[in-house]
Write a structure and sequence with these properties.
Blueprint lengths: L2 H6 L2 H5 L5 E10 L2 E11 L4 E5 L6 H8 L7 E6 L2 E2 L6 H10 E4 L11 H11 L5 H14 L15 H13 L5 E5 L7 H17 L2 E5 L3 H7 L2 E6 L2 E7 H6 L4 H15 L7 H12 L1
Parallel strand pairs: 3-8, 3-9, 6-7, 7-8
Antiparallel strand pairs: 1-2, 1-4, 4-5, 9-10
This protein binds adenosine-5'-diphosphate and magnesium ion.
Length: 285
């Protein structure tokens, strides 16, 4: 390094890496419904960022904007060097989605393909990886999600938690730069939630960049670096996990967490006999 270099490239400038994901003043409406009202989010490489907030507050919409599934009317979204909000062609969007894994509440595995085939199909067809390499990688990923013994099973033969772990492995098979998780445990039986959270916890520990929308508040508290609290299309508050869970600045955040944590800690009450009868009637019809 010569004197000129050291003068222009200060250590501070070199140390500050640009965020991997950045949303700046993002606005999105569905018709008259102004759903995102100036969203700012930053995710750095290796971070786990949780988005929490009431139902309908825009959490899923934020994730769908990051993958280019939805285009905001205003604002900027970038993933690495890619400006997501200005992508035009299908080819550009496909290129983006190779880099951004997305796992939903509904796992949407191909029911007619085995677990292994579910993992191999995108890497071979979309990225052109050889079958032998894709299969080797898929088996390693099944090991990682603790399902090596289910490689030849069909999705219908697996529990919800197992299928969701396959869905996570399928996202990982594309070797994404980051993974978005949208309420991936919400549809699961309570006894299989833990095994899915364990897989996500392992990924976070390995340094995979993760953005997590979740109702599992204790889990968000445990694994997140940063937490965003959304309400009615705005970010009410964001900050390090210790701030949001320990000393929230907004009264709204405090109330939300109090309610969410309170409900999470209580055992699920047994439904009253009347409700059961009503449900039986409804499903019998
Ligand atoms: N495809 C869509 N068309 C019209 N309205 C939508 C669509 N998706 C979401 N919305 C609306 O946007 C708002 C935010 O939804 P969403 O991002 O799914 O919230 P959350 O994930 O926080 O529950 C809601 O009012 C919802 O009804
Ligand atoms: Mg949602």
């Amino acid at each position: 390094m010569n004197a000129t270099d050291s003068f222009f490239s200060t250590p501070a400038a070199q140390d500050i890496e640009a965020p991997l994901v950045q949303l700046k003043d993002v606005h999105l409406s569905f018709g008259d419904n102004h759903v995102l009202k100036g969203i700012n989010v930053e995710v750095r490489r290796g971070q786990a960022v949780s988005i929490i907030g009431p139902s309908g507050s825009g959490k899923s919409t934020i994730l769908r904007c990051i993958t280019g599934l939805l285009r905001p009317q205003a604002g900027q979204i970038s993933v690495g060097d890619t400006r997501v909000d200005t992508l035009r062609t299908e080819a550009e969007l496909i290129a983006l989605r190779k880099r951004v894994g997305f796992v939903f509440q509904q796992y949407n595995l191909f029911p007619h393909l085995t677990v292994l085939q579910n993992l191999v199909i995108a890497p071979t067809r979309v990225v052109g990886r050889s079958r032998s390499v894709a299969e080797r990688d898929a088996r390693a990923l099944l090991e990682k999600v603790r399902l090596a013994h289910k490689a030849d099973a069909y999705p219908g033969e697996l529990s919800g938690g197992q299928q969701q772990r396959v869905a996570i492995a399928r996202a990982l098979a594309m070797q994404p730069e980051l993974i978005l998780f949208d309420e991936v445990t919400s549809a699961l039986d309570p006894e299989t939630v833990g095994e899915v959270l364990t897989v996500i916890r392992d990924l976070v520990k390995e340094g995979m960049t993760c953005v997590l929308v979740t109702h599992e508040m204790r889990f968000a508290e445990e694994i997140s670096d940063q937490v965003y609290f959304t309400e009615a299309g705005s970010i009410v508050e964001h900050g390090p996990v210790a701030q949001i869970f320990g000393a929230p600045r907004s009264e709204r955040t405090r109330q939300f967490l109090q309610r969410a944590l309170g409900e999470g800690q209580r055992a699920r009450p047994a439904p009253p006999a009347e409700a059961l009868r009503f449900n039986q009637l409804r499903f019998a019809l």
